[in-house]
Amino acid sequence: MTATTHQLTGVLFGICTMTLFNLFTLTADALNHVLLFYGLIVFGSLLPDLDTPRSKLGGRFPFFFISFPLNWLFGHRTWSHSLMFVCLTFITGWMVGAFLDWEWYLCSALAIGVLSHVVGDYFFDGGVPLFYPFQKRKYRFIVTARTKRPHEWNISENIVAILLIAANSLLLLSQI
Ligand SMILES: [Zn+2]
Predict the structure, then answer these.
(1) Can you give the residue range of the structural domain that contains 114?
(2) Mean pLDDT for each 10-residue chunk of the chain (176 residues)?
(3) How many domains does the chain have?
(4) How much is the pTM?
(5) 118 alpha carbon to ligand 1 midpoint, in Å?
(6) What is the spatial distance between Cα 137 and Cα 131, in angstroms, rounded to a whole number?
(7) 3-state SS track over 68-98
(8) Which of 9, 65, 111, 119 has the fewest CB atoms found within 10 Å of its own CB?
(9) How far, in Å, from the CA of 48 to the mean position of ligand 1?
(10) How far is the CA of 52 from the centre of ligand 1 (A)?
């Protein structure tokens, strides 16, 4: 899954959380919270691929100082694509949030983004090691899409991206 599709999945998870828990209406008052909420989610949706310098986040300064050693030590799609990492980011979010006096949804936003990444890769070739480090087996859906390579026309990834854009637009419109 490419970075753009991961970001779209993160936004979808954000809108679903917002709708399910009736968090905030899209007004100017709530703008700061909305921006922080989605900013954390989008960052979280890219965070697991910090384990490779070939990713959008991992290939950029200063993140490649982290992605190179991580990739060398653990390889791509290992612990950062597990449920353990989702829990770890959840705990970190709540620790930082307690310090900054955040609402629960801001504390959870980073983990929501990371979860969206793991769920997204579950539907793509390669799969995800959900129970890493206890079990190294990679899980994936029965039918998977193929990750788009640079400068390649890839139907399955494009279809997923278009479906995500459509779902996000419909859900956002229902909020107005
Ligand atoms: Zn990934």
Answers:
(1) 3-175
(2) 95 93 72 92 96 91 92 94 98 97 95 98 94 95 88 86 95 84
(3) 1
(4) 0.92
(5) 7
(6) 8
(7) HHHHHHHCCCCHHHCHHHHHHHHHHHHHHHH
(8) 65
(9) 6
(10) 9
